[in-house]
Fold this sequence. Notes:
738 residues; alpha+beta; Multidrug efflux transporter AcrB transmembrane fold; Alpha-Beta Plaits; 4-stranded antiparallel β-sheet
Amino acid sequence: xxxxxxxxxxxxxxxxxxxxxxxxxxxxxxxxxxxxxxxxxxxxxxxxxxxxxxxxxxxxxxxxxxxxxxxxxxxxxxxxxxxxxxxxxxxxxxxxxxxxxxxxxxxxxxxxxxxxxxxxxxxxxxxxxxxxxxxxxxxxxxxxxxxxxxxxxxxxxxxxxxxxxxxxxxxxxxxxxxxxxxxxxxxxxxxxxxxxxxxxxxxxxxxxxxxxxxxxxxxxxxxxxxxxxxxxxxxxxxxxxxxxxxxxxxxxxxxxxxxxxxxxxxxxxxxxxxxxxxxxxxxxxxxxxxxxxxxxxxxxxxxxxxxxxxxxxxxxxxxxxxxxxxxxxxxxxxxxxxxxxxxxxxxxxxxxxxxxxxxxxxxxxxxxxxxxxxxxxxxxxxxxxxxxxxxxxxxxxxxxxxxxxxxxxxxxxxxxxxxxxxxxxxxxxxxxxxxxxxxxxxxxxxxxxxxxxxxxxxxxxxxxxxxxxxxxxxxxxxxxxxxxxxxxxxxxxxxxxxxxxxxxxxxxxxxxxxxxxxxxxxxxxxxxxxxxxxxxxxxxxxxxxxxxxxxxxxxxxxxxxxxxxxxxxxxxxxxxxxxxxxxxxxxxxxxxxxxxxxxxxxxxxxxxxxxxxxxxxxxxxxxxxxxxxxxxxxxxxxxxxxxxxxxxxxxxxxxxxxxxxxxxxxxxxxxxxxxxxxxxxxxxxxxxxxxxxxxxxxxxxxxxxxxxxxxxxxxxxxxxxxxxxxxxxxxxxxxxxx
Length: 738
């Protein structure tokens, strides 16, 4: 089938080129609009934290879309008239915006907790009417309307500004990574092909694949929630895989063109290299599709975007590249910039032969070395570092850090307890339970303060609160009436617990766990939300799904390789080799980003944790990408084994024929991953470094040393499959006879 596809691409080459040219022009119009259609948040899942937020919205009318504006002055304090005038002037335009529900400041609320102890720093909460997604669209214009009075420093922070800054940083990183990657790729391809024409094809194809993919992402974003980080993943995979697949096609075409007519060379290229691309693309797509098992839009959109870009890279390599090669013919070798190196491939044959002469002496130390590289994984601590994922210069990160330092680490991230009492919140028994619950919290050394309907004044006793709320319509104190309206309904109330530590601190996580286990008291059902609870719930959902993701990816890839190789053993060996590469990559991830080694060189500051999303993204992406090289190598080995029946000779010749190409393809992906490792966002940086390490290890230690050693040790068992499987999977000739 692929042979006939190659012949068709050669025969109708101008039509194929014309279709791709039209697609590229159309995508050039749509692709630049993709960032504006993507979401910056993580998405929703059915967690306790989310149910509590929904309850707050339904019962108390609380808004999720809040922007905290932090003001600071070196000498003035909030008690000075000039400070008040400056704050009110700064927020004047925002306060009258029809999309703003209210602006809560120390001056409108009288709440002294909105200012630092020295009075020189305060914050105002700008509450927006719409949803978080709507607020994300409004925020850039809203931020421009917030003034910076003379002598003041002003920062906007909170979830919406943080996600907005993430969006901008992701777009900036994408442009920078592409500007770094494409020139490096061109140089690398010139070294591989030694001619300008051959080197230009993969780079051009990568640009087309990425552009068309981003256009498809834009269209998908009209009906699905797609994360802003799809841009980075689509660009990384699009550049890397489109170049890798094109490299394989161009290399095999040049080889076949030496002793076949042009059209036949195209057919054989697709029947051989094209088959390897087809199966390696499927394995990579299966790896990315594992992300669809996780509820959050962040992972689902990354999975969808990743699968789309892989399929697009395959489509370009199997249609456009053959059409271009059929047009060029022998001119593919035009414009040589470096002399050819005849016999260079024999180095790989000598390596394979040397390895297979002493397979145990090679396999044992290499496997032990990879296991040793991965040992830091055993102390991995996953967590969400919140604002610190942003570069130090990001306004929202600076504002968050100022608020934590001056107002208290938990000032902007309280633990929120939502309590429901069917018998009525203001019943004496309910008030007594709330009072006891809050007094226990106030005695907890982890808690700075508590905000509730029974903590309005420390001088008021339990009995007095019960008496006060016995007739809520006749409460004489306006402040108490306002608090009751804001914090309670007939059967629901909220208790805000302001911890002394930040939202990702271990003691705050422990506090959330204890509050959920303890509850408010008899007669109450309790839900706990807030930044810490939300992060912990998200972590539980993500890693609760991870075992299923692992099982799905491994089993599905195994089955694809079973069909490709018609062997039970080779797919199992391939999975184990990938696992070793991934283990070493995880170890490097912990060593660098959790332990903090090389942080000065890489330009980040460790928070002592491994970011939650990185291990899962690495598994799904690296497992598929590493399998590419296994498929490239073993497809050629099987092709030779089917011709000769000689296992050892096929491995040596297969490595000779593919070693340079696999190394070159790996170098290209390492360069692309390295370009993304320059990201200012620690998540993208960690992903780039982890991917580069995994691919480097896989293409050198694993493919050049460990695989030949194991192939030699297993001998004919490499190709074993039970008879019933061989009947189900009949042998197919790669190239038609005649």
